[in-house]
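Key idea: predict the complex, not the pieces.
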Amino acid sequence: MYYKAAEKMGIKEKLGILTDAAKYDVACTSSGVDRRGDGTGMGNTEAGGICHSFSADGRCISLLKILFTNECIYDCKYCINRKSNDVPRASFTPDEVCELTMGFYKRNYIEGLFLSSGILYHPDFTMELIFQTIYKLRREYRFQGYIHVKAIPGADPMLIQKTGFLADRMSVNLELPTAESLRRLAPNKHRKNILAPMRQIQNGILENKNELVLYKKAPYFVPAGQSTQMIVGATPENDYQLMMVAESLYQKFGLKRVFYSAFVNVNEDKELPALPGGPPLLREHRLYQADWLLRYYGFQASELLSEERPNFNVLLDPKADWALRHLELFPVEVNRADYQQLLRVPGVGVKSAQRIIRARRNGSLRFEDLKKIGVVLKRALYFITCSGKMMYHTKIEEDYITRNLLSVKEKLPFDKDGVTYRQLSLFDDVNFQMQQDG
Amino acid sequence: MVVGMEEKYLICEDSLEGVFTGIYEAYAMKGDHGHMHIQIGEEENFRLFAVYIKVTPDDVKAAKVAATINRRLGAEVYLDLCRALAAEDGEKGEAVYKTVVRGLRMKEGSRVMGALADDFVHKVFELSRRTRNEVHHWKEFLRFQELENGILYSKIGPRNNVVTFLAPHFSDRLPLFDFMIYDEKRGIFVVHPKKREWYLVTDKDFDEREIGRYAEKEMEYQELFTFFCHKIAIKERKNLKLQRNMLPLRFQEYMVEFGQ
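Result:
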């Protein structure tokens, strides 16, 4: 089996090219599976995942996120690695990937490996290389840390199946929310080729769960579940369409996570929008907030948005926005409301709602107790009562509350105009600035 | 004020053993817990009309208290109390003592940590969370460097006493490696010999200067990882403020990719 990997290029140069090529993939989580080491190798996993560093864009570094190769037979218009781009190309060998993973892991730089790839020759050929690599890593190097790999659309289902028994998480990128957009920007990819492996992995996970009930020693198939990602802002879909797609992925494909990736325009292509304000970070942020509401707060996408109101409020987070449109449901009595009602109060999160339920068994709660519990009172106070009383004498009126909520500055991970934070201060670490060559 | 109800202060050593022995003595006195207090370390401002009793740590007494807590309040509460006692805080002894008293009075002691409206319970909750968060941070940010003799060596400067919580985590991950974690603020080393159980030594028994030279490959790996961190960042999303929020500077000084 020959490919260009063996050509003379140092490991550092390869790492540079193949990291650069992988960085637009968002998922870097190492969560979803708790596994102790068996004492014969190296590594374990923690259910909550562990970040090991943060890059200069503030994103978490948890996994060694690399492409196996950035050679690609496809020509997706948004992708830096598209066939028609003149960029330096490189490929790893399976041993190089294993050595890097082991060397980084034992120094506690990473939780594991995230291996993706451009399509070299054919989807089967590429999937086979990915399989060989993680087979080696698991069986020869005895690596028991986290492994996330891509399932390559169009690859032989047998290869995907074999890979799933070695990986913790698998993902197939939906890339774009609609078949139409995919046709326009990724002419070599087809919606059904993307959904087929997704369905296969979903079924594999289900079957595996049944097997595990019967035989405790059955091998695990993708135990940390499946994820996907969509690019936001490269095509004209609105937030409502995106959320409906995400919701059906959770409900119909049993996905663990859907990731949203603010579009970064790396190619000059007439099909792509110009984004003078930079990547749409605020929009991406709102989508993640809403995604959280779907997964942990019992919201439906249709409660948050509609055909008539298809985009999220720029000024308010989706939960506050929802609450303001449903003032008839408030205020709720903290000492009596059920868990689902508490979750819908702005300023009350999953943890504080659980703590309220536990704490009120020992007597009724006052506002100062809620503060200790971690409720953000300056947001919650318009929506709750403690033993029948509101915290202050406040009007329950949309304009009034909106004004007050807006005066409490929302904590955003970037400046409020959605542009990233660019100013340097004296305290910036000079050793960790972005390299000019990117 | 009831005559004869003077406040009693039990002065305990700053350790799990010290405070648990204090709790044992407090119960042994059969007084009113409302007038008994546990204080860690030496008292600077002695109060009038108060009695100070120095408690010498005793592992048999401490073990009895630990067993009672585990049996009556459950392993989870026990762990919360241990974490609270690992925190750097002057009032942790009193908070743990009063939380134990409250828990033992409850029908279902395992629910004591839910009583967050109680100031002592809340204090234990806060301290336990503080330790747990820091333990998690060091699981994330601690770095090992490979020495010439193959030992993986890590130096950390934690605010709370976290090494005993880190040791099991890394022992499970790196069973086939000799490794050491040095808490330079407290002068404690975790030592893990490969395929064996970990143990603690203090810097009285071991001099940090005995740490040998780095392995030849070590600098190469540091360079590769630093390079990886540069390359993985998206320049259009540059956000150093967010980076610093997620990764406070006090950790960065121990991390190879920040140039130590």
